Amino acid sequence: MSLSRFLSFHPRLRAGRWVLAASTLVAGCGPVAVTPYVPLPPMPPPSEPMNMSVPVAVSATSSRKGAVYRPAPAVVPELAQVVFFRRATSTPSTGAAHVYVDGEFHAALMPNGFTRLCVAPGAHSLEAYIDDAPLYAGKSQPKTQAVLEGGQTVFVAVSEMGEGAPVPHGRVAAERLLKGAREQRQVISRAVRVQPCREPSQPARRA
Questions:
Q1: 23: burial class by Cβ within 10 Å (0-12, 13-18, 19+)?
Q2: What is the per-residue pLDDT across 129-186, written as a single tens digit (0 to 9) for each?
Q3: Is the distance from CB of 138 to CB of 100 less than 8 angstroms?
Q4: Are 34 and 20 in contact (CB under 8 A)?
Q5: Which residue of 57, 80, 144, 203 has the lowest C-beta tally within 10 Å?
Q6: Residues with Cβ within 8 Å of residue 151, at least 6 apart in sequence
């Protein structure tokens, strides 16, 4: 069989067989060892655009938690700092709260968990939704915006009503609620505008 005829024929071969046929044709000899066929992962659901990362489900018993909360330090004037937390509950009956920054997934908070992030000063959307699959409203339709000032630290809590808009708190009240809370590190942030926080005494990082 000629190469041109083989290439026109191979789409009709069953998956996993055309790889072996191609190897045999090129080598011009008998069968050769072929890596077993591995099916491709399933396509994302229609409700999620292909270019958007889907939040990863987080177990309430996950052990990948960071340190216990300590008072948030000051931040350089070139950044604004946000402490996003979820209050402790005695009977957590819902899953993780997905935190979104400017419409992009940043963290998953279980009860009595927090995340600290920094962004450039200016307007940003900050939201958190509990059990928002499969629509992921925080990514597709961000509604809540805040104007953050450089050098400012703000504290916001997840709304247990599931409305998306966070609940602002003053430092004293927030840090009382944050006592014993642990930083959540179960997932990797996909929010491109989030930057590492930097204290005034720390030198700027080189690009």
A1: middle
A2: 887 877 776 677 778 889 999 999 999 999 987 678 999 999 999 999 999 999 998 8
A3: yes
A4: yes
A5: 203
A6: 74, 75, 76, 77, 79, 80
